[in-house]
């Protein structure tokens, strides 16, 4: 019998700093996964946009760049930014335009405590299953819409306005996605987060859309929280939460907290999705370029591996995604852990350990 392996074209953008190290590691692990699965293969488009590109041409994305990415089935991204370039410039020159231009309007951030790692919360040390969340982040508007301006710049009277834009269609589509996500999980539990006591326009619109969409999902137990109280609840009652939906800014902050509660920012994955599937979705660990540890071979590649697993799942290979996570957890449980997780291993040792686990599963 001849079987044809499915070929996926992946654009990989390693970027800067540890982004290049964790992306290399993820590519190696994905190649191994494809090999042991036998059901699919990857064709890579190696995209070398980074801070060097910005210094040379004043932009991270060269002309024709978006069209190039649109030819791929998915995008794998590392991290971008370097200390000589202000963070808001690198963010607004690469990652935010990609999310906007490729209509990636939701950002999904799963968090749980992987086997072999541990949480700083004593309740989760006693019972790691107490923390198992999916944060659904609005990824296209809100506080990161880029609206606002500065008047009297550079003078003692300087005024900066930062305008958050919330639109009904924008809120509605992410709210539906969050309810669908919650409905597809065993506990069918959704918490919607705003700051609608202090912000009375866009946040109140979020509340209104939540009430409407909620009526369509009688099977989902939904509640709402103010973002400040939510931080306490995440720490004090992790088990009371499952799926969480919040604005661009709020979910950004809550997902860093979630990553820390699950053990390290180095393990946290994210998926920038275009749920219409008209454009390729983009998968990236949530960590940044981390100049302090770049080039030392110590970066934790698990966030990149988990993001790779989410990419493979999005491409329709759920079994392979599960297998990859199983390998990651087996390796961690056997001691292949980087320093941020309290271990002794470097990036390469963890990568080799995961590949070895994958081989052992055939
Ligand atoms: P950004 O501005 O993009 O958020 P950053 O460099 O300011 O990036 P992060 O890289 O997200 O911040 O992380 C902050 C710190 O956490 C890093 O400086 C590093 O010490 C640590 N860290 C982040 N990612 C990892 C990782 N994968 N492995 C080990 N440590 C990490
Ligand atoms: Mg950061």
Automatic annotation (TrEMBL):
PROSITE patterns listed in its UniProt record: IDH_IMDH (PS00470)
Keyword Hydrolase applies: no
Membrane-spanning ranges: none
NCBIfam families membership: TTC
Keywords: Magnesium, Manganese, Metal-binding, NAD, Oxidoreductase
Chain ranges of the Isopropylmalate dehydrogenase-like domain: 9-354
Name of the molecule in the record: D-malate dehydrogenase (decarboxylating)
Record Pfam families: Iso_dh
Originating organism: Lineolata rhizophorae
EC number: 1.1.1.83
GO MF annotations in UniProt: D-malate dehydrogenase (decarboxylating) (NAD+) activity; magnesium ion binding; NAD binding
Listed cofactors: Mg(2+); Mn(2+)
SMART domains: Iso_dh
Family affiliation: Belongs to the isocitrate and isopropylmalate dehydrogenases family.
Catalyzed reactions per annotation: (R)-malate + NAD(+) = pyruvate + CO2 + NADH
UniProt xrefs under InterPro entries: ICDH/IPMDH (IPR050501), IsoCit/isopropylmalate_DH_CS (IPR019818), IsoPropMal-DH-like_dom (IPR024084), TTC_DH (IPR011829)
């Amino acid at each position: 019998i001849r079987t044809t392996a499915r070929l996926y074209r992946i654009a990989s953008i390693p970027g800067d700093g540890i982004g290049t190290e964790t992306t290399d590691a993820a590519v190696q692990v994905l190649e191994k996964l494809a090999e042991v699965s036998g059901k699919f293969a990857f064709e890579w488009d190696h995209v070398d946009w980074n801070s060097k590109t910005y210094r040379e041409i004043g932009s991270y994305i060269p002309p024709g760049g978006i069209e190039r990415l649109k030819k791929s089935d998915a995008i794998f991204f590392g991290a971008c930014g370097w200390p000589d370039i202000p963070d808001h410039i690198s963010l607004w020159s690469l990652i935010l335009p990609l999310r906007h231009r490729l209509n990636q309007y939701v950002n999904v951030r799963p968090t749980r405590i992987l086997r072999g790692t541990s949480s700083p919360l004593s309740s989760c040390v006693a019972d790691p299953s107490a923390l198992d969340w999916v944060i659904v982040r609005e990824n296209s508007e809100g506080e990161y819409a880029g609206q606002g301006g500065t008047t009297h710049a550079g003078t003692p009277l300087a005024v900066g306005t930062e305008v958050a834009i919330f639109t009904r269609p924008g809120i509605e589509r992410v709210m539906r996605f969050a309810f669908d996500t919650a409905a597809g999980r065993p506990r069918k539990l959704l918490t919607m987060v705003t700051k609608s006591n202090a912000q009375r326009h866009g946040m109140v619109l979020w509340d209104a859309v939540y009430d409407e969409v909620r009526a369509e999902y009688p099977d989902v137990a939904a509640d709402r929280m103010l973002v400040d109280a939510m931080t306490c609840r995440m720490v004090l009652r992790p088990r009371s939460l499952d799926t969480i939906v919040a604005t661009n800014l709020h979910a950004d902050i809550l997902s860093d907290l979630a990553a820390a509660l699950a053990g390290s920012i180095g393990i946290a994955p994210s998926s920038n999705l275009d749920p219409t599937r008209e454009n390729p979705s983009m998968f990236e660990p949530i960590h940044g370029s981390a100049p302090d540890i770049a080039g030392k071979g110590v970066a934790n590649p698990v966030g990149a591996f988990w993001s790779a697993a989410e990419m493979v799942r999005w491409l329709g290979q759920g079994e392979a995604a599960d297998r990859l996570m199983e390998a990651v957890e087996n390796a961690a449980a056997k001691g292949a852990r980087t320093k941020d997780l309290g271990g002794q291993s470097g990036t390469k040792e963890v990568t080799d350990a995961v590949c070895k686990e994958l081989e052992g599963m055939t």
